[in-house]
Amino acid sequence: MEGGAAVRQFILQRLGYSIITLWLLTVIVFTIVRCTGDPALLMSDYPGIRPEDLAALRTQWGLDEPYITQYGRFISNVVRGEFGKSFQFNMSVRDIYFKRLPNSLQLGVAGFLISMVIGIPLGIMSAVRVNTWWDSVGKLVALLGLSIPGFFVALVLILIFGVSLGWLPVLGKGQQFWEPRFLIMPAFALGWYFAGSMLRLTRSSMLEVLGSEFVKLARFKGTPEWVVIAKHAFRNAMLPVLTLAGLQLVLMINVAVVVEVIFSWPGVGRLLMEGLLSRDFPVVQGVVLMAGAMIVMVNLLVDILYAYVDPRIRLAR
Amino acid sequence: MMRYRLLRSLMLVLLLLLCLLWRAVPATATTFPIADAVIDSDRTRVPEGKLTIAVHVSLSPKWLNPQDNPGGMAYEMLWKVHDNVIKAGEGHVYSYALAEFYDMSPDFTVATVRLRQGLKFHNGDPVTAEDVAFSYENYHGINAAFLHAKTARVERVDNRTVQFHFKEPFPDFLLYYGTTASAAGVIIPKNYYLSLGSNTQERDEKFAQAPVGAGPYKFVRQEPGIEVEYTAFTDYWRKVPYVKTVVSRGVRELPVRVAALKSGEADFAYFVTGELLQSVINDPQLRYHPNLSAPFWLMFPDMDDPKSPFHDIRVRKAVSLALDRQYLADQETAGLAVPWGNFIPPEWPGAVQRPGGEFDLKEAKRLLAEAGYANGFAIDWFTPFPAVESLSLRLMEQLREIGIKSQMNVMERPVYMQKLLEGKPTEGYGHKGFPGRQILMSISVIPGDASLYVDNWLRCGGTYSFVCDKRIDALWQRYQTSRDLREREDLVKQAQNIVLDEYIFVPIYINSFTLGVGPRIAGKPSDYIKTPMTVLPGPSEDLKLQSGR
Question: What three-state secondary structure class fits B222?
């Protein structure tokens, strides 16, 4: 088979897998949200509501129909790029999602940059100066990043910079799209956890590369140390780190639930939380499906790029 | 002279008769007392400043549409943008709002409402009888089916007057129309609403995005679920609001609400509890209000089973006597909660007023011994009201003092509510949702009056009914047929007394929905907690910032 045709077949095959994955995701999310119970019952918490009011709600939300009909409507909506209407907000889930997505992108990218800025340089320094105090500091940061929960970091930041010093606002994202004052604390709280995993992966990857034959050869040739590190070791060590970074970015955009809830950040993570708490099936289905689609898309792109870069991968399949 | 005396005697007799009639008539022919609104005639005020309210829940856009209204916290947003015909006012359960007159016919089949003159919606349209009638007829929120089933027709008498004709006597009409038991009395502009789409669903969705009302604040913008911004409506009939911009912001996390209050980003913070409440109390910059909501109480799901220890009134009384309510209030709410002896909040019309129950461990142990449980007994579960585990642990400890041992059965709120709705079995004893031997804790805020608590909790087959007692059902039957408002109130009180005297329900304390108040707010916190049957600070047009803040 010629190279172009092989790549084409490989891409089509991957695309098919992606569609099957997404279809399975629709089945799983549809089933699991319904296992949580009847959303109308949450309304029974409202004072004085009568059984006939609850029955009217079930009819309005289509919950009195058979599951297969509900699933059919869900799929038909998805095919048309819709996710139905939110029970809680009485609005199109697509509209709410895309209204909040730019805010999550802003927070996710900022958190991602912070995790890169902390994780990669410290990871490199830890690997280059292994078993020195640089390495100890790096390991400590990784440990703290991975072990301190995001909500705790967020609350400590709020207490210090919001309440005690009064330097930064604690609520929301401001009226304008770009107001860095509002972004600093949530982005740091979000990026902190991912910085830990980034640091650990960079360190281990760099250590592996620094011990390889071609790095030793570069050193024997008398290449300056910074060139060895920056050009030979770093570039090779970055491959797994960048793969992880791509997935982390998608996660930061879609599931920054805790940070978004604490800082009252109007993103999709908070939307997911609101949907879960109120058993808002269309919202949960929509957010989970969009997050799944992004992850599948990133994986697909990575696979395709790998196939282009490394012929062994495509020929092996 | 003789003639004059006779005439005078006749006049006296006539006067006496009139007095007697006057005593008799209000009890049967009039409705609940409705207070006049306090109107501020100063229309020159220029609203200033911005005030932010940190609300403890997400803010649904649905809450801006009274037609589709679920009740409860929805009034946080609803009462800013919209207004009722009649609603709770300062110190009064019923107060005239958009209406200046209300009357119920002596046979309770026709209610008449007349609007004030010169009322306007935010878009400049006048508020008319047509809007009042449409808001009622098209209403499809909580209790809509119940109201519509009772109503024969709604008549537009003139441009300001509407008459509601009922299929049968409906003495409770105002209970549903003038309280948060429904939002059918919240008026929306008919023409604007109808212009938003071709069907109700479409109109509801668009109306919630861009609501127009006749309330003290105009809607400006919203981030669905996150925040809503309003601006003062200077043509509001009662007064020109003091504050120009009000923002309601959903902040679910308590530490963040408190942090926002301390940093000045929020001026009011709802539902401040636990250790963070103490930090607000200790902060000299901040103030607070206990903002009492409703009592917690205990129930015994299997008490109708003769084999259950709780079948014996002495055991139930021992449970009540074992509770040190003041200690519980001190530990759980920094002393802000008030020990109380009824499960219905005291400000609800028709609620029996009972102070907190007695604490007497010795007597409790004696009663248990007398009932044959000198060494106490173990029960399957103590089921707390969801998210009230800390208080429940203390209650379990206090019950252990008299030998009642239990394990906690924690439930998520939806599960708890679902089980509550399952009700009593048609045959046998106990409760379908809460089987076995257990003590169940609850709290309930039902807008309206005490009769709705009897309807929901006490009568056989009520929505959350825990009691199926022939005496209470007989009282309820009489209540439903009675046209005498005094008798009806008395019947509701009798029903409460049965469950309280016989310790069928054991009240604990009125919970504190503490309101945190920031330094920029003018006046005392109590200035903002004066509307009966709501924990929301207001009314919104009365919110005021300190000058220069």
Answer: strand
Q: Tell me which chain A residues have a C-beta less than 8 angstroms from the C-beta of B176.
A: none
What lies within 8 Å, CB to CB, of A280 at 6+ separation is A39, A86, A87, A88, A89, A274
Q: How far is B242 from chain A (nearest CA, A)?
A: 23
**Cα distance between residue B229 and residue B223, in whole Å:** 9
Banded pLDDT at A309 (limits 50, 70, 90): low
Q: Half-sphere exposure of residue B10, counting CA atoms within 13 Å on the CB side? A: 6
- Cβ-defined contact of B68 to A90 (cutoff 8 Å): yes
Rounded to whole angstroms, how far apart are CA atoms B161 and A173?
A: 47
Which has more pLDDT, B115 or A173?
B115
Cβ neighbours of B418 in A, within 8 Å = 37-38, 41, 44
CB-based contact, B208 to chain A, within 8 Å:
yes
State whether residue B461 sits within 8 Å of chain A by CB. Answer: no
Comparing alpha-carbon positions, the chain B residue that sits nearest to A103 is: B223
Distance from CA of A87 to the nearest CA of B (A): 9
pTM of the model: 0.86
Q: How far is A53 from chain B (nearest CA, A)?
A: 6
In sequence order, which residues have a C-beta less than 8 Å from that of residue B80 and are 6 or more positions away? Answer: B215, B216, B217, B230, B246, B248, B540
pLDDT value of residue B21:
45
Annotate A196-215 with b (16+ C-beta within 10 A) or e (fewer). Answer: bbbbbbbbbbbbebbeeeeb
ipTM above 0.90, yes or no: no
